Amino acid sequence: MTLSLALCLDAPMQSWGIRSRFTMRETTREPTKSGIVGLLGAALGIPRDDEKELGRLAGLRMAVRVDREGILERDYHTAQNVPTTAGTGHRTVVSERYYLADALFLVVLEGDEATITRAAAAVQRPHWPLCFGRKPFVPARPLTRSGRPGGPRTGEGLQEKPLDTVLHDHPWLETRPKARAWALADLQRGETIELRTMIDCDPAVPGAEPRHDQPISLVRHDRRFTTRAVLPGYVALTEDMISAGDSGVPEQAQH
Amino acid sequence: MFLSKLNIDVTSREFRRDFADVHQMHRTVMAAFPQVDDEQPPRQKHGVLWRLDPSQQGYLLYVQSRVEPDWSRLPQHYLTEPHQVRDLRPLFDAITGGRCFAFRLVANPTRAVKRDEKQQSARAEQGKRDQPRRVVHRTPEAQIDWMIRQGERNGFVVPAGRNGRPDVAPSPAFRMQGKTYFGDEAQKVTIDHVRYDGHLIVTDPGLFASAVRDGVGRGKAYGCGLISLAAAR
């Protein structure tokens, strides 16, 4: 039996950098492996230099489903009174910090059962506060169901299904009544709606793309990564995925 | 020439898809124009240029074209209010020598970087031509230089502002990505947008009018090259 862990990543702002150094801090359009390993590491209370424990998390297979594409935004950020390298004074450093606004992701992890089970419990009771790429980018919803009835629509948490099955049948995480009604109407008119996916795969698979975000160490100022391969693809949104996951509680009013 | 102003509904699923994939945005824009049956690519034939401008509510999409577009073909929930289309003839009539305009342009200011031998041989193996890599200008100085060179080619100059520097402000490169398909083969598109706001003075009306009509720089299918003009402030 394969165990998977389904997480919901919902926040007004998220940032998933791959090449972010110094004054250009970019974000990719979906969560990075290093970002998710860091998130679970924070939940489990794993120190940044514990390469053995981080290696366990990094060894999990990851897949992302984009339930709502984010909008790329840019922050103009200044830091004042930064000492110059010559040591002769101070200057103001301007940096460009990009983030995704209003994005919504389903992240599924599969692999070693003990690691997955511990991570699932830790996400419910995190050791350190969780954030999506930057400290102030905090989750807008719990990442997984608490198991108590009447909770919000979110990630199903631990599931006895392989990762690919979860990607295809996990409830759609969109909560906005307008967006849900539009999508339902489109499907009933016979249109297909595709959700973008990114799945860890073997580099030899045709169409695989490299991503330099497989973490080895997350020590500040000495982060080290290697390359993994991802396969971009799509899964079809179905009416079942829209209606499933309703716990009978009226959705929050959204503006 | 026509200019369309479209108020985008940023909650629209199709807009989010287009925003995440610049090639999809190109297709959405081109769907408003008739099919062509001759050799010329449809975007060039219809003279289509577009630009996304951030607005209070989200985004405004401006589209310039030679023929009148049919925006009824847009996805159902794409706009927050009905589209507006206007004739650009008065604007072209106003382009005269020595006239000063306020302008806005999103461009892809690049320079050519020669590939090293390893890259060249790798490309040769794939049967690709030896073309230099195009690299976007990252510093404001280089971005302004690029703008001034465009002016030399396209019949305008950027006047000096109050501080004695060229009166144009570039905002940082915004990376747009997408996928285009040749048959079954997907190819990645990456295009960096740099936004210019400033003033220009027309030196050669004929040359400048054709630059406004055809766009400037690279990436014209992907939201670059459309010059918008307004009365000088």
Structure, described:
The complex is a heterodimer of chains A (255) and B (233). By secondary structure, chain A is of the alpha+beta class. Chain A has one domain: Alpha-Beta Plaits. In chain A, 22% of the residues lie in helices and 35% in strands. Chain A is built from 6 helices and 9 strands, in the order ββααβββαβααβββα. Chain A has helices spanning 33-44, 51-58, 113-124, 163-169, 177-188, 239-243; strands at residues 4-14, 24-25, 61-68, 71-83, 90-110, 157-159, 194-201, 209-217, 224-236. In chain A, strands 1, 2, 3, 4, 5, 6, 7, 8 and 9 form a 9-stranded mixed beta sheet that branches. In chain A, helix 1 (33-44) crosses helix 2 and helix 1 packs across helix 3. Mean pLDDT of chain A is 90; it is low at 248-255. Chain B is of the alpha+beta class and 233 residues long. Chain B has 7 helices and 11 strands. Chain B has helices at 13-20, 22-30, 42-45, 89-94, 117-125, 140-154, 205-214; strands at 2-8, 49-54, 59-65, 84-87, 100-107, 110-113, 133-136, 156-157, 168-182, 185-202, 227-231. The longest helix of chain B has 15 residues, at 140-154. The chains are: A alpha+beta (255), B alpha+beta (233). The A-B interface holds A 24, 26, 29, 66, 68-72, 74, 96, 102, 176, 178-179, 182-183, 186, 193, 196, 207 and B 10-11, 13, 16-17, 19-20, 76-77, 138, 172, 174-175, 177, 186.
